[in-house]
Amino acid sequence: MVKAEGVHKSFGAAHILKGIDLEVAPREVFCLIGPSGSGKSTFLRCINHLEKVNAGRLSVDGELVGYREHNGKLYELRDKEVAARRRDIGMVFQRFNLFPHMTAVENIMEAPIQVKGESKGAARERATKLLDRVGLADKAGNYPSQLSGGQQQRVAIARALAMEPKLMLFDEPTSALDPELVGDVLDVMKDLAADGMTMIVVTHEMGFAREVGDSLVFMDDGVVVESGHPRDVLGNPQHERTKSFLSKVL
Ligand code: ADP
Ligand code: MG
């Protein structure tokens, strides 16, 4: 579903991604861990067309991110084409980013109506089902300010799912939450994983990675240091940098 081959990204003189190679299979829960500043968010943003890679190949579902291939030549995607590709990718951020002037159900209805031209009735029906799925059927009429952080994050997940993405990106979805609210969000993610969603999850929740992850990558300073099954990487890290990081977070 995602393939990175020698992906590089710089911001000016700052070389952030220094040749990332990895593959995410369909239906896989792929966990990405690493110290702050190692480039995890930048990598997710490249997958989601929010940043352009400087070198290497990055593809989602067999299509190069940002380019169209035709007769062996590469053409940069136009804005409309980028928008179409981005529809297939859901992203959930550390901060919930809900529209503050819309209720929970309206937040979820917004993209299907605006982007897909879905009818209000159909969008509401779908949004209601999604709210139920994330355990918030009774909060449809609440504004974000009337929801806890964990509830807002579950609405944000439902909002991403409303576009029926084939890939979900989670960038530290529980890092901004009070500890007692983390479990409900992780439960929603587990449910999604059990349902076969392909997910890339940047997280510091090692319990989630161990229990739900199919593979895990430890990234440091813009490179993949170590990867494998979460049980192996977390239980028996091979590299000094991985050991040192895990000793701080476990
Ligand atoms: P992580 O998510 O692993 O904490 P990030 O991908 O957010 O790391 O950031 C990696 C590095 O890239 C940081 O040093 C950050 O300051 C830098 N960076 C990220 N985005 C930009 C940007 N738009 N312009 C300049 N530097 C950036
Ligand atoms: Mg980050």
Give an account of the 3D structure.
InterPro entries: AAA+_ATPase, ABC_ATPase_HisP-typ, ABC_transporter-like_ATP-bd, ABC_transporter-like_CS, MetN_ABC_transporter-like, P-loop_NTPase. It comes from Streptomyces nigrescens. Residues 2-246 form the ABC transporter domain. One of its GO terms (molecular function) is ATP binding. The protein has 250 residues and is an alpha/beta fold. It is 37% helix and 27% strand. The chain is built from 9 helices and 12 strands. Strands 8-9-10-3-11-12 form a 6-stranded mixed beta sheet, with helices on both faces. It has a 4-stranded antiparallel beta sheet with strand order 2-1-4-5, with helices on one face. Strand 1 (2-11) and strand 2 form a beta hairpin. Helix 3 (104-114) packs parallel to helix 5. Adenosine-5'-diphosphate is lined by residues 11, 14, 16, 34, 36-42. The site of magnesium ion has 3 residues, from helix 1.
Quick structural gist:
With 250 residues, this protein is an alpha/beta fold. Helices cover 37% and strands 27% of the residues.
Write a concise keyword list for the protein shown above:
nucleotide-binding, four-stranded antiparallel sheet, ATP binding, six-stranded mixed sheet, ABC_ATPase_HisP-typ, binds adenosine-5'-diphosphate, binds magnesium ion, transport, alpha/beta, 250 residues, single chain
